[in-house]
Design brief:
Blueprint lengths: L1 H25 L11 H25 L48 E6 L9 E2 L2 E2 H18 L3 E4 L9 H10 L4 E8 L9 E7 L5 H10 L10 H8 L2 H22 L7 E8 L2 H4 L5 E8 L3 H7 L2 H23 L11
Helix pairs in contact: 1-2, 3-10, 7-10
Length: 340
């Protein structure tokens, strides 16, 4: 109703403006200076002021309930009716923000970053004569050889026993433009020494206090300051990278558990979990952190001290990385759904 009134007012103003111009062309004085046109002059001066509240009122009535967005006519492919012949066709759009899905980007995996946890003055977990920094470095070397032999380009954040801040590890990874990041660690749960298992982490917030405590311990030698917090937190919620990290973590965890349990029947599958480890937050590519053993368990500590068992861990990590890369190397053909 109000919209129709607005249109009538607009047409009336246009007609009067055209008539005014024609009068001037014909030599007649402008209507504003003619006697008896005071009311018309006032009307013409006030019309713009009246149009503003009328337009706002019309827009308010046209608002829907979906987030306060104005509801406009939408053309869904059906031809316009006779009464709508003069209306412009508006194509349907959406104002909602959709999550970015990594399925739209089936990119190949060619370059892998291997991050052997801890090192130098940061030994990591310790059990008797078994030290985490030595275990992770040895597994990293073995995995490096397997990946390189299979044609992958491998970048390492730590090639020997030295202290490297987490910030530096992330810088090396990001500047290499690598495709995935795999951080190798060994767990230690002093309150559950009877248990032994493996778990793989990907980027994400957690409400589990024990995982927060674990992340704090792993993030201790970070090289970041409080001023970097906003940038780090923004990285926690990057949808596409997190989805790919979850996919990579799931494949690696499955390979680790299935292959290592053949050597240790008591090994537990502690699953795929989210945690805000800084090496996962600060890297730009899909990233995971694999806890490939548990030094707080005496039996598993003894197994981790054996070279053949560390080779099995490297074999399992390689199988997981290769399976993930193979899945990404086989994108669906255009127009053909993948039911496999």
């Amino acid at each position: 109703m109000r919209a129709a009134t607005i249109q009538r007012v607009k047409r009336r103003v246009l007609r009067e403006a055209v008539a005014e111009n024609l009068d001037v062309i014909r030599g007649a004085p402008p209507r504003a200076v003619r006697p008896g046109n005071r009311i018309a002059r006032i009307w013409l001066k006030r019309v713009p002021l009246l149009l503003v509240p009328l337009a706002l009122g019309g827009a308010y009535l046209a608002r829907g309930t979906s987030g306060g967005q104005a509801i406009l006519p939408v053309q869904r492919g059906a031809p316009a009716s006779a009464g709508q012949a003069g209306l412009p066709v508006l194509h349907e759009t959406t104002t909602s923000i959709e999550r970015v899905t990594s399925a739209a980007f089936p990119l190949a995996v060619k370059r892998v970053v291997l991050d052997a946890g801890h090192g130098g003055t940061d030994p990591g977990a310790i059990a008797a004569d078994v030290i985490e920094k030595a275990i992770t470095l040895d597994i990293g070397h073995r995995l490096h050889a397997l990946l390189a032999k299979d044609g992958f380009e491998v970048i390492t954040t730590r090639a020997d026993d030295r202290t490297i801040a987490l910030r530096e590890r992330a810088r090396v990874a990001n500047e290499s433009n690598s495709d995935i990041f795999v951080s190798i660690h060994v767990n230690s749960i002093v309150k559950h020494t009877a248990s032994r298992g493996i778990e793989t982490y990907y980027l994400g917030p957690t409400s589990d206090p024990s995982l927060t405590q674990l992340a704090a311990a792993e993030n201790r030698v970070s090289g970041y300051s409080l001023g970097d917090m906003r940038k780090l937190l923004d990285g926690v919620y990057a949808d596409a990278r997190r989805d790919e990290s979850f996919k990579l973590a799931g494949i690696v965890q499955q390979e680790l558990y299935s292959k290592l349990r053949a050597s240790d029947i008591g090994l537990e599958n502690w699953g795929v979990k989210r945690a805000p480890f800084i090496v996962l937050v600060a890297t730009d590519m899909p990233a995971i952190l694999a806890e490939v053993g548990c030094l707080s368990n005496q039996q598993e500590a003894a197994m981790l001290n054996r070279a053949e068992y560390r080779q099995k861990i490297a074999d399992a990590l390689f199988a997981g990385i290769r399976a993930y890369a193979s899945a990404n190397d086989g994108p669906k053909k255009k127009g053909i759904p993948n039911h496999g």
